[in-house]
Amino acid sequence: MLTRLFNEPSLLPDMQKFGGWVDDSGSEDSKIKDEEQERCRLGDEDLDEGDVKDGSSRAQSEIAGEDDDDEDVDEDDCGDDGDRPKKRGPKKRKMTPARLERSKVRRQKANARERTRMHDLNSALDNLRKVVPCYSKTQKLSKIETLRLAKNYIWALSEILRNGKRPDVVSYVQTLCKGLSQPTTNLVAGCLQLNSRNFLTEQCQEGARFHLPNPSFSMHAFPYQCSRLSSTHCQSGSNAHSLRNHSFCSAYEALYTESTSPEYNSPDYESHHSPPMCVNGNFALRQQESLSPDAERGYQYSVHYTNLHGSRSSATHGLAYGPSGTRSGSAHSEPSTLPPFHDVHVHHDRAPPYDELNAFFHN
DNA sequence: TAGGCCATCTGGTCCT
DNA sequence: AGGACCAGATGGCCTA
């Protein structure tokens, strides 16, 4: 299993098993240090330029934190070689037991900080895993794959915003999976397909509005929605045309619906933790609203929010696009009463630097 | 068993 | 001086 217990405090003592010099005077590192000291004592140092620099840095590191009562030892004293020119830089000092102890403490503190830093980094990566289009607890994306998928996802969304129209599913999947490993590609494709099925199941069989079990959480986590996952799948349904033109039910909501689908309950895929698989740029509201003339007219970007009582409201931020993708409303016509999450609406006329995105994406 | 992924240690560098 | 950041090294775990 790839899943591991990150940030497990009980793992911290395990540092001793890595052979570090901490609490292990007989470890490899201790031996190396002892050997270096022995070399110094024997005067067999024959440093080239790189070694001088390295030795200087090492000496500088060793000096940190030492007391004045430490015995200073001239570097040349080690070799006692009168022919060699005196080396510049800080003088090496003898590692007294007190200095060794302080050095150990410094190193321990640095190791602890490094662990914390890496744990924070992993935590951030976990958060990123939850917002990329495929999230699975049992088949966790690797770090590199998470970053790649996130990059592709950002790119895909940017393209949707730029074009103002939905891409076809194939190109969307291709975009998401670009540069990913085969297993990750399969995983992402599987997630997309599964979500599409869920969407269809909810839409076609129930035909009812969707309810969020925990709308407050979901809106905080993903304050946006999209719908009409896959025209391909929709067309395969009995009411494909209707779905294509009128079904603006939110796949995102569908993913939060208590589904009877066995796939939905599968522990392998927890796609409901992922953001919507938006393939068409429709950040539509509820199904009911989607039937409004505006929604039917096309690509309207909206924002949902939730008040403290759990009731949902919505605001449309004037990003209505006609079928041709041309803007039919004012992108900055902010509503008089902005929802709490108004900052997530799309500033379409503030186009991101697509040239840079493009260069980045194709690198 | 090889390879991928990961956590940790470690030393160097840069910055405050 | 000390902390943050980085990259290399190392060893463990897991899977094909």
UniProtKB/TrEMBL annotation:
<dbReference type="GO" id="GO:0007423">
    <property type="term" value="P:sensory organ development"/>
</dbReference>
<keyword id="KW-0805">Transcription regulation</keyword>
<dbReference type="Pfam" id="PF00010">
    <property type="entry name" value="HLH"/>
</dbReference>
<dbReference type="InterPro" id="IPR022575">
    <property type="entry name" value="NeuroD_DUF"/>
</dbReference>
<keyword id="KW-0804">Transcription</keyword>
<feature type="compositionally biased region" description="Polar residues">
    <location>
        <begin position="325"/>
        <end position="336"/>
    </location>
</feature>
<feature type="compositionally biased region" description="Basic and acidic residues">
    <location>
        <begin position="28"/>
        <end position="56"/>
    </location>
</feature>
<dbReference type="GO" id="GO:0046983">
    <property type="term" value="F:protein dimerization activity"/>
</dbReference>
<feature type="domain" description="BHLH">
    <location>
        <begin position="105"/>
        <end position="157"/>
    </location>
</feature>
<dbReference type="GO" id="GO:0045944">
    <property type="term" value="P:positive regulation of transcription by RNA polymerase II"/>
</dbReference>
<dbReference type="GO" id="GO:0070888">
    <property type="term" value="F:E-box binding"/>
</dbReference>
<dbReference type="GO" id="GO:0000981">
    <property type="term" value="F:DNA-binding transcription factor activity, RNA polymerase II-specific"/>
</dbReference>
<feature type="compositionally biased region" description="Basic residues">
    <location>
        <begin position="85"/>
        <end position="96"/>
    </location>
</feature>
<keyword id="KW-0539">Nucleus</keyword>
<dbReference type="InterPro" id="IPR011598">
    <property type="entry name" value="bHLH_dom"/>
</dbReference>
<comment type="subunit">
    <text>Efficient DNA binding requires dimerization with another bHLH protein.</text>
</comment>
<feature type="compositionally biased region" description="Acidic residues">
    <location>
        <begin position="64"/>
        <end position="80"/>
    </location>
</feature>
<keyword id="KW-0524">Neurogenesis</keyword>
<dbReference type="InterPro" id="IPR036638">
    <property type="entry name" value="HLH_DNA-bd_sf"/>
</dbReference>
<keyword id="KW-0217">Developmental protein</keyword>
<feature type="region of interest" description="Disordered">
    <location>
        <begin position="1"/>
        <end position="114"/>
    </location>
</feature>
<keyword id="KW-0221">Differentiation</keyword>
<dbReference type="InterPro" id="IPR050359">
    <property type="entry name" value="bHLH_transcription_factors"/>
</dbReference>
<feature type="region of interest" description="Disordered">
    <location>
        <begin position="312"/>
        <end position="341"/>
    </location>
</feature>
<keyword id="KW-0010">Activator</keyword>
<dbReference type="InterPro" id="IPR016637">
    <property type="entry name" value="TF_bHLH_NeuroD"/>
</dbReference>
<dbReference type="GO" id="GO:0005634">
    <property type="term" value="C:nucleus"/>
</dbReference>
<dbReference type="Pfam" id="PF12533">
    <property type="entry name" value="Neuro_bHLH"/>
</dbReference>
<keyword id="KW-0238">DNA-binding</keyword>
<protein>
    <recommendedName>
        <fullName>Neurogenic differentiation factor</fullName>
    </recommendedName>
</protein>
<dbReference type="GO" id="GO:0061564">
    <property type="term" value="P:axon development"/>
</dbReference>
